[in-house]
Predict the structure.
Amino acid sequence: MIPSTNPTSTVIFKALIAVKARNAIVFSPHPSAAKCTAEAARIMQEAAERAGAPKGLISCITQPTMAATNELMKHKLTDVILATGGPGLVKAAYSSGKPAYGVGPGNVPVYIHESANIAKAVQLIIQSKTFDYGTICASEQALLVDESIKEKVVAELKQQGAYFLNEEEKQKVASIIMVNGSLNAKIVGKAPQVIAEMAGIEIPSDVKLLVAEETEVGKEYPFSIEKLSPILAFYIVKGMEEASELAQKLLEVGGLGHTVGIHAEDEKVIEAYTIDKPAGRIVVNAGTTFGGIGATVNVKPSLTLGCGAIGNNITSDNVTVTHLFNIKRVAFGVREMPKKVEGAQKEPALTK
């Protein structure tokens, strides 16, 4: 199952790990990105055939419908499902009767501690958040900044391309983030200038992302949700404990099990902050987009990020080739079970 947010890169990645594990793979594209998903699958199949693969090893549904997707998931030749998409799709995959690797949403909170290298942290955050205009599920969604360094962080963000919305602008942007209680698909992966125009505000042409100060968390506060666009919430905290509590609340809004970030130089703070976070990936001093997918930290490279049981997924791993083959173990006897100890109590005799 291929999402509209990453309709080509996910095809390339999943085709690689499937074929490497000796599987054929069939893609079910999102209707709004069907053409580019099908084209990516075609390119991968042609490349595979040039390398000696059989025809049909990599294929794609050409007319995506929910009925077609359900039939594909339940087909007798389907062995395992990789479900990348919204909660409804993941639930359908888990209900199909087939083994399934589902993944969940990210609502990534990133704590900037007062010991952080502020200029470097901001550079990494902006590079991460603006990649593909924020469509990666591991991208930063909220910054949690120590009160003692607020002014320095704000100044650095502005210097590196962030635009802080005033209260009126914030309300206008908030009004287009959600539609009928869900994320507005029209802002996903759009440039900040496009989003600003949709909201009826003007911003400079060189702005890289929109930032709004926020104090509340919940569905009724659009900046606190996963936005999948170059929009960041900016929270001020009075220390690690407050940041930790706020991060938990943000994850509960829609990112449990996914990813958490922290920028700090104090190792004791890093350990104390990360140890109890309900997330499969804790990214330290790196952008969470590239850290989460394994590009800049030492976790398995993957574009399919599990959220574990806490996120209603079967695994918290970065799903990769090792999840797509069965392991057979040939196990030789190396020890014997001990005999009953001499003098051990015998079973009581049966009596009438």
Observations:
- The chain has a mean pLDDT of 94.
- The chain has two domains: 9-102, 108-301.
- The chain has eleven helices and 13 strands.
